[in-house]
Amino acid sequence: MTTDNWKTLEFPDKDELIKARHQFHQAIQNVGCVGRSFLPASSGDVNANLDWDAKLQRLASRWITGELVFRSSFSLSEFSVYLVDELFHTISHFPLQGKKQIDVMIWLEEQIDMLGLDSSQLSLKLPYEIPEYPTAKREAFQVDSEVAGKEFEALFHNTNLVLQKVVDGIEGASEIKCWPHHFDIASLITLADTGDPETSKSINLGMSPGDSSYDEPYFYISPWPYPVEELPDISATGGFWHEHNWVGAVLRVSDIRDKQSAGEQHDAVLNFFQQGLKALMSIIKV
User: Fold this and answer.
1) Are the C-beta atoms of residues 138 and 101 closer than 8 Å to each other?
2) Nearest CA to 34 among 129, 128, 122?
3) Which of 50, 91, 101, 102 has its CA nearest to residue 74?
4) Number of other residues whose CB lies within 10 A of the CB of residue 97
5) Is the CB of residue 90 less than 8 Å from the CB of residue 40?
6) Which residues, 6 or more positions from 171, have their beta carbon under 8 angstroms from its beta carbon?
7) Per-residue pLDDT of the chain in tens (286 residues, 90 and over written 9)
8) Partners of 140 in beta bridges
9) Burial of 241 (C-beta count, 10 Å sphere; 0-12/13-18/19+)
10) Which of 180, 30, 3 is nearest to 104 (CA)?
11) DSSP 88-104
12) How far is the C-alpha of 276 from the C-alpha of 209, rounded, in Å?
C-alpha cells in the first residue's frame, strides 16, 4: 500500500507524552474559543471544532470574518498559537513556552480588536469540563520535550491521512474534526439518523492522544448504541475490545511499536480501521 505522506512515529517516553498532552489540551481551548466566541452558536459545540490543516501542519479553527477572513491555529511541534488569513499568511503568532493562559487571552484580545471584531465577546468559558491542569491555575505553559510535540503532530497528521482513505465515499461520514473537549480527532459515520442522538446509529473512528481510559495515544472505532450481542473477533486488526464505560475497538500506539518503518506503521493503522469497521458493520442492523 502507498504510505502517502505518513510521518514515522518515534515512540518517545510515555511520561513525556503525558506531560505534553496536558499542556496541549489546555492550549487548544484558546484556539477553539475563537470560533466559539465569534461564530453562530451550534449544537454539539461544532463552532469550536478544529481541522487538521495539512498545509500548515496545525490544528485550525473554522474561518471567521472580521476586516479580513482569518482562523486561529495551533502548532504542536512549535507550541505556538497562530492567526492566519485566507492565503495562509501569518497575521500574528504567540509562542506559549513560559507564558500563562491569561497572556494568551490578552494577546488574542489585542489581535481580535485589530481585526475589527469586538474582543469583549472573546470568552474562554467552556461548555464542558476538562481535567484541572496546573496551567488553568495561572501556572506557565512548559513543554520540556520537543520530541513529544513532533510525535503528537505526526499522530494528528497520520490519523487525518488514514481516516480520509477509510471514510472516502462512505455515505453518512462526517468531515474529520478535532474536538477541543477530548482533544481527539475523528469522523462520525451516521448509519441511521432518527433526529435523536440517543436512538440514532453511528460509528465513530478516530485517535485519542490519551485520556482516563489509556495513558497513551490510541486509535479507536466505537459504535452507538453499544452492541448487546457478542462482539466479533477483531484479532486480525491488531487491536482489542474496550468494554469499560464505553465499547469500542482499540489499537494503542504502543501496540505498533515493533513497526519501525513508515510503511509498516501506515499499513497497521489502516488495517485496524478498515477491518475493525467491517467487523462492526457486520453486527449493526440498520
Assistant:
1) yes
2) 122
3) 50
4) 13
5) no
6) none
7) 456 799 999 999 999 999 999 999 999 999 999 999 999 998 889 999 999 999 999 999 999 999 999 999 999 999 999 999 999 999 999 999 999 999 999 999 999 999 999 999 999 999 999 999 999 889 999 999 999 999 999 999 999 999 999 999 999 999 999 999 999 999 999 999 998 888 899 999 999 999 999 999 999 999 999 988 889 999 999 999 999 999 999 999 999 999 999 999 999 999 999 999 999 998 887 6
8) none
9) middle
10) 30
11) --EEEEEE-TT--HHHH
12) 19
User: Amino acid identity of 222?
Assistant: S
* Location of C-alpha cell 490519551: 210
Residues 6+ apart with CB under 8 A from 145: 12, 13, 16, 17, 19, 20
Three-class SS state of 116: coil
Residue with cell 496545525: 58
CB neighbour list of residue 125: distance below 8 Å, 6 or more residues apart = none
Residue with cell 432518527: 194
Cell numbers at 43, concatenated: 449544537
- The residue written with cell numbers 509498516 in the block is 264
Nine cell digits for residue 123:
470568552
Q: Which residues contact 107 (CB under 8 A, 6 or more apart)?
A: 81, 92, 94
Instruction: Write phi, then psi, for 87 (nearest 5 degrees).
Output: -90, 10
Task: Output the pTM of the full model.
Answer: 0.96
149, 33, 56: which is closest to 97 by C-alpha? Answer: 149
For the chain, the residue count is: 286
Q: Do the beta carbons of residue 69 and residue 86 sit within 8 Å?
A: yes
What is the distance between the alpha carbons of residues 130 and 120, in angstroms, rounded to a whole number?
A: 24
d(CA 26, CA 17): 14
Distance CA 101, CA 98 (A): 10
